[in-house]
Design goal:
This protein is an alpha+beta fold. The chain folds into 4 domains: about 70 residues, Winged helix-like DNA-binding domain superfamily/Winged helix DNA-binding domain (Arc Repressor Mutant, subunit A, Orthogonal Bundle), CATH 1.10.10.10; about 50 residues; about 90 residues, SH3 type barrels (Roll); about 90 residues, Alpha-Beta Plaits. The strands form 3 sheets. Strands 4, 5, 6, 7, 8 and 9 form a 6-stranded antiparallel sheet that branches. The longest helix has 18 residues. The termini are far apart.
Length: about 325
């Protein structure tokens, strides 16, 4: 059988895919495998090849005993790191189910065949929450290229109508965007930049972009003092107006929710055995009021009074419309 690549490269591939700490291989086993693949070798040549790999920086570990056994020690990714990456790929909404499976198969190729089975993770992910857009990878890559090169991109953008049909916005209008940065929020991928169509900085969901193209026209420079975190707060969080300090009275069970929203540095104090207060910086917007309302009375706005009154007025308005 004719060898397809240099013996040293084949040996390195064999050690990477067939061995690990729990599955080392003897010189005899390695030699037999190489011979079956069409390589002329003996135990002396195998040992020389292994030493050459070790001298070249490959972490081949030798378990010494009556018969030495070899395996690849450190890899580009440890098994625990591959497991975390597999979980992240499975859970990501912007990666389609088909693409997720392809990526996981490639990640499994970075482990030994014995470890690859452990990457069959028992993580439940609702397939319905994953995007059906198979081109999102290439769209994201094009946007990153535009950001690096300081160029505009053009694309169409779609939403869904009442029949769950994809509908291009503004009668298939071609949007022109100067992308500044990519944003990740609530497991969705966004691009942030100056939109010629809107005449201002805007965000677009990457998985709802269609027919993107890189333009020759240079991008509009970012505003002076541009800070992506400021725009992210105004778009995705509770800061879409003038920011102010608001004090909340919360049941103790809500501490995790407050920390999830405002971070571990949020200012809190104990009020009584069942409650704590939290001083947060937000805008008194419907977004913030909706978040407070979601806890169904377990959270109250206690200061300033004007914000508490606005919240009560909005709650009454919603109740009247629901009648």
């Amino acid at each position: 059988m004719e060898a397809k690549q240099p013996r040293l490269l084949y040996l390195m591939d064999y050690l990477n895919t067939q061995t690990d700490e729990q599955h080392p291989a003897t010189v005899t086993e390695i030699s037999d495998h190489l011979k079956q693949a069409g390589y002329a070798c003996g135990w002396k040549s195998v040992k020389r090849d292994i030493e050459q790999l070790m001298n070249g920086g490959v972490d081949v570990v030798c378990n010494k005993g009556r018969e030495c056994k070899y395996f690849v020690g450190s890899r580009h990714f440890e098994l625990v790191e591959l497991k975390m990456l597999v979980d992240a790929v499975q859970a990501s909404r912007f990666i389609s189910h088909k693409k997720s499976q392809q990526l996981i198969e490639k990640l499994a190729g970075l482990a030994s065949i014995h470890q690859a089975g452990q990457l069959n993770r028992h993580l439940y992910v609702d397939k319905q929450t994953k995007t059906s857009n198979e081109q999102v990878f290439y769209t994201a890559d094009l946007l990153h290229e535009a950001i690096r090169e300081g160029r505009k991109v053009s694309f169409k953008y779609y939403e869904y109508n009442s029949r769950k049909q994809k509908v291009y916005k503004h009668n298939r209008r071609l949007y022109c965007l100067s992308p500044y940065t990519m944003l990740w929020n609530n497991d969705c991928y966004y691009v942030l930049g100056y939109s010629d169509s809107h005449g201002k900085v805007a965000t677009f969901r990457v998985d709802r972009i269609a027919a993107p193209e890189l333009c020759d026209e240079p991008a509009v420079p970012a505003p002076e003092g541009f800070d992506p975190s400021v725009y992210s707060k105004s778009v995705f969080q509770m800061y879409d107006g003038a920011e102010q300090a608001v004090t909340l009275k919360c049941e103790n069970t809500l501490m995790k929710s407050v920390i999830d929203r405002f971070g571990e540095d949020v200012e809190t104090s104990v009020l009584d055995e069942g409650h704590f207060s939290a001083r947060v910086h937000v805008s008194a917007s419907p977004t913030f009021f909706g978040w407070v309302f979601s806890f169904v009375g377990k959270m109250e706005i206690i200061a300033p009074q004007i914000v508490a009154d606005e919240y009560i007025a909005l709650a009454h308005l919603v109740a009247e419309k629901a009648r």
